[in-house]
Amino acid sequence: FRYTPQQAAANSGLPVHDLAVRSGDIVERVNHPHYRTVYPTLAQAGFALAYTIAPFSLDAWRGVLIAAELIGLGFILLTLKRLGLSALWVALYWWNPLIVKELANSAHMDGLLIPLLAGIMLAVAWRRHVIAAAVVMLGAGVKLWPLLLLPAVMRPLTARPRVLVLTVGLVAGIAVLLALPLLRAGLPPSSGFVAYGTTWQMNDAAFSVVLGLAALIWTPETAATAARLTVIMVLALLLVVVLRKPAAAGERAIGTLLVLGAGLFLLSPTGFPWYLAWFLPFLVVVPVTPLLLLTALLPLYYLRFAFARHGLEGIFDHYVVWLEFGPVWLWLGLLGWRRWRKV
User: Which member of 43, 243, 316, 325 lies 3.0 to 4.6 Å from 205 by CB, making a disulfide possible if both were Cys?
Assistant: First the structure.
C-alpha cells in the first residue's frame, strides 16, 4: 500500500527492493507499475499464501484459487440443498467455461471472492444475517464492491434493533481492521484505489452512454466525474427500491443479491469478463437467462487486442462492445416490459 512496483525496482534504499530484485523480470511486467496496489488487505493475504507455498509461482497461485473455488463449490451445494433445489444447478458455475478460463487458466484474483460470495448466499439461505454481514465485510477485504450487499443482508435485522446495533459494531470493527494498513499508507494520486475509482474505464456499454451524455454538457474531466456520480446515484436508487420491499428470505433474498451484483457490473465503467464471478454464484440459485448469456458474449472482449494491434480500438470501444452487452440489455428490457404489462 505504501510503495509502487516502479519505486520498489528503482530504489535500493526501500525495504521492498530486495523482493523486487528476487522477482526477476516479474516486477518489470506489472501492469501500471507507477500505481500502488488496487487490491485490499485480504487479497494481499491470498497473494502472500501463494508466495509462501512457492515464491513467484503461477502454479502456486492457481492452487490457492482452485482451493478457494472448491470451498465456494461446497457452500453453493449446501445452499442448493438448504433451498431444496437440485444439486445439478451447480454446473452453471462449476462447468461454466468462462469461469474456467478466467479463474483457473488466467488466474484472476476474483477467484478469492467465490467462497465469500457463496458464504454470504449460504448464510442468507440459513437466515444467519449477522454471519452474512460479517462475510460481506470479509468480501470487501478482497474487493471493495461487496459493500453494496451489506444493507440488503442486514435489512432483516431491523426487526431486532439490539442485534442490529451489535451487528453494526461488528461490521465497523472488521472494517477498521481491514482498512488500517491502507489508511496508514494514505491515498495519494498514485494509489491504485484512487486511480481505479476515478479514471478506469474499459469494456463498458451503459457507462459509455452516460459519459457521452455528460460530455454534451461539461468538459471531459467534469463529464467523467459526473458520469461516475450518476452511476452511483442509480445504484443508490436501486438499493432504495430493494430495501423498500419487505425483507425476503430464501431464493427471493438471493435474488436481491443478484440484482445488486449484476446491476453494479452492467453499470460499471469496467466490464472485464472475469467480473462475471461477481454474481455467478447467485445465478446458480436464481438463473436469469439474459445474465447467463454473458457467459457466451463476454469473451468477445478479447477481440479488442486484435483491434488495438491495428490501431482500431476505438471501433471496438464504441461499437463492438455492444455485441457483448446489447443483447443482454434488450432481453432484460423485454422481461421488464412483460412484467410491467402483467402488473
Answer: 325
